[in-house]
User: Fold this.
Amino acid sequence: MTMELHLLEKIRQIKSKNDSDNHHDPYRPGYHLSPPFGLMNDPNGLIYFHGRFHVFYQWNPFETNHGIKFWGHFSSTDLLHWEEHPPALIPSEWYDKNGCYSGSAIEHEGKMYLFYTGNVKNRNGERESYQCLAVSEDGVYFEKKGPILHVPQGYTSHFRDPKVWQQDGRWYMVLGAQSNTFNGRAVLFSSMDLQHWEMLGPLTGSNRKYSEEFGYMWECPDFFHLQGKDILLFCPQGLEPKGLHFHNLYQSGYFAGRWIPGTNHYEHGEFTELDRGFDFYAPQTFVDHRNRRIMIAWMGMGDDHEQCHPTIEKGWIHSLTIPREMKIVGGHLYQHPVQELQKLRIGQPSIVNLDFHNGNHEYYASIHPQSEIIINVNSLINGRLEITIRNNIQLSYDPSNEIFTMARKKFADNRLEKRQCIVNHMRKLQMYLDSSSIEVFINDGQEVFTARFFADQKDDTFHISSEAEASLNLQLYSLQASCPA
Assistant:
């Protein structure tokens, strides 16, 4: 039996056991993608191909930790209802035997091309890294073509996560890297045939603080043009907390600037965090048939919380975010829940108008585990607004210092931990709740907070309190489940 068939048989056995032992899991998402079993992390190969949306992802089917990685695979016609497929990439060859790491997808001449990093540990326990190609006629079954790019001089073996795109008749590839001086880089290559690649060098500009030292490794880069701006998404590792910024183990963010095609010259502004919550990493974007730039990220963080997730008892861990459409507003990257998500709404919303005046005021409601909540803040004067969800997640805004706060109970000991950012004027909150997650969009996506949380399954409380003079309009929707359980 070949290695590939052996690994597939092991997955089949786990799936069979998982199906026979399947029982209700109150934390399994209703409309977020999660693994059937094992560990899920980075979304990979996002693409619209032959009438379907494809989401691949890093998957360890054998354990709930970061061991050997496959590419799991879902597809959909509507971004709502997903079909599970066999794993697209299996670590079975000499150049990827310790893991098929993250990468991207393109369509070329009617075929789907996957670019990924083959991870190898040699006999001395040292890492080797190869950028590899696989091709498919139908977007489900892939033929590996082997390595197309090796680690160039000047970089360590932490060289991975290829993102490929075409512009002006030429192909480009950007990779996350670590230089021999242990600084993070995004390194650019170009090609005319997708097989032979020329290194253009690290994407650099006049902003020296980012071209010299800004973390020890940059992972999961994505580079695209949007509404007159050239955007580099990447995940720097090794940043120290600074004020309200950089409080997760690793960060996800972007530069916005101007790139000269055909070169590695990229003038850009300050680094901006994409999501200010607890669980957001490895975002990747693609353009669909409606010319929307859509992003999906890993709703996780490989920190000390990870092994405290209660879903490990059920044999799975982590999820992906909802799809978000990206737009530039005032030079800032905004994120909007894709319009298709409105089709998950069940019936008409509960609509509540709240007018708080002269003293402490409270509002209580019961919410469905899968809910969408929209709060329009018409006025908020002389006090804080506080929202508590299922006695676990706490959201607050203080207009006196313009700070928005998300707090949650820690997975290990239930003590509160928090993330914060500045919001100059809060006028709207849109929240997507699932069985064990929340995504909060402030002011139509100006800022976003994403988090996992694990509340008592019987707790359905939703509570608003304020000492301020406030006028609020609430819309509460229950949402239907749409993803494989």
